[in-house]
Fold:
Amino acid sequence: MSGKNDEFMVFSGTANLPLAEKVAEYLGQGLNKIDIRHFPDGETFCQVIEGVRGKDVFVIQSCSPEPNEAYMELFIIMDALKRGSARRITAVLPYYGYARQDRKDQPRVPITARLIANLLETAGADRILAMDLHANQIQGFFDIPLDHLKAEPIILDYIREQHWAKPVVVSPDTGGAKTAYGYSRKLKCGLAIVAKQRTGDSTVDAFSVVGDVRDCDVIMIDDMTATGGTLSAAAKMCRENGAKTVHAFVSHFPLTEKGMDRLMHETQLDELVVTDTIPLRSDLDVSKLPFKLTRLSVAPLIGEAIRRTHNDESINDLFNHE
Structure:
């Protein structure tokens, strides 16, 4: 795509500028100018440099690795745009922080994913573009339109390029079975599920594999990994059941220090494929990982979703191709 489209504008917070720049490049324009600074006491200041009156505006902000700061920055940006008389504000969230706090499963705990939805609307969002939500029910937390983007087309393209001899799609837990089934249908291969028992916030005991993975190239699908517990336990179980190779695919990679240590020393993966919805940790030395780490960019997908949203075209058509 080429040529600057003056009818819509794309701004970015500071959480994942490299991704936002790739999105703007896909759209054939640079990011629109915004001044974001932090006062000595920690408060955030934002000034939109270009006029936005009557414009269709998109704000890209990944809410990791520091979700509190990222969200506050996004709220302030949208408030500035709203007070600048933008016609429509779309919050583009490659990673929706707090998505795992989507239900009340203990006494006296919040549903923070719903709280974030309320805050986004209050701050001025007229529409949401979000990538691979941890739970589909989060879409129901909003009273404004939300388009749920999926990294699936980009991941499928990569898998098909590998031409593995005997692929099988594996869900690392029962909760991801439906997603894994969808991948297996599109790849026309087998399906297996790892049954697990979570024993703590970062520890998982995998105890059985439902399905045949012997002599197979395992394609493990999950929406995110932070501590690496689920992937490591599932990879170990697949190995014990005779898998030839194990390749894990995750959309989001909000890696913690515990997760980095586990991936360095405990995992039995051959390859981990992640997208660039979240920047890699600055202290992660990829050259020392005991497996191949591959990063795929979702910028073309987000860019095309932005273009289609502006032009009132179908977003769903992006995900309907086999």
Remarks:
- DSSP finds eight helices and 14 strands in the chain.
- The domain at 152-296 is CATH 3.40.50.2020 (Rossmann fold).
- The CA atoms of residues 129 and 227 lie 26 Å apart.
